[in-house]
Model the fold of this input.
Amino acid sequence: MVWGTIIAAYLFLAGLSAGAFLTSSFVDRKYPNAVIVRVTGRLISPVLMGIGLLLLIVDAEAGLKNPLRFIYLFTNFNSVMTIGTYFISFFMMAAAYVALMEILKKKVNKIVEYIGIVFAIATAMYTGFLIGVIATVPLWNTAVLPILFVVSALSTGIAGTMLVSLFFSKKEVHQVLSVKKVHLSLLAVEVFLIFTMFLITSTSNEAAAESVASLVTGEYMLLFWIGLIAVGLLLPILLESLELWNARKLSHSEAGLQVAVAGSHGIAGTLVTESAVLVGGFILRFLLLSAAVPIAFL
Done:
């Protein structure tokens, strides 16, 4: 592995944090009465980002011995890491402010929220660009990767927000059907992007082909096909589709509509769906780091 498991966790948490913030903003506009879902997304966002940054600092052992080294992250404007540091910093400040306003039950300044939305998207993209700019690793060095990470960030953000919200308001979780429809679309797009990226990169050079082979038929085959594709993507797609189908059928009868409004259907399915998406989101990043084969220079 070029980078360790801690970096995979950092990339996962950063994307999850950005996705949760964006989910809360979407819910706030689409479902103003879904207060629990909105507040949940806003509260977990800065917490997850903070944990991710802590993991990054722990992984940078030299930085712990020499904390001043981190100052260079703000001064080297030729580095993608410097640009990303500013993205994360602005996002973290906006997310922390919004979360504080929710805790104090005060109105959120819309300008700050819009800034948070912009930098949440930038943060999600940065997690892909961070490794994507490394030209010596062809599995990462593709324009598809940042798009894949943004889609995955949105998907895991929805999953994390819904999963936590489920313990506080089952009713609200099953009323935000537009969020579930978006989630289903994101999962389908993620499957498409993964295999598109593999198809493009595997034909570029020997190192790329070796990386893809280790995932599809080699060392990481079981984790890829069972952990990521089956559990992390196809299972949530199936369960989300069934839940949306059942919700549609329930809405066609008065008794069924009352059940749907009460949020007393699909609880177990939602729990499994969102948990599986989170597992798949981490496995995706772990596999991309683990299977990366650099180009050998003679």
About this structure: DSSP finds twelve helices and no strands in the chain. Confidence is low (pLDDT under 50) at residues 254-265.
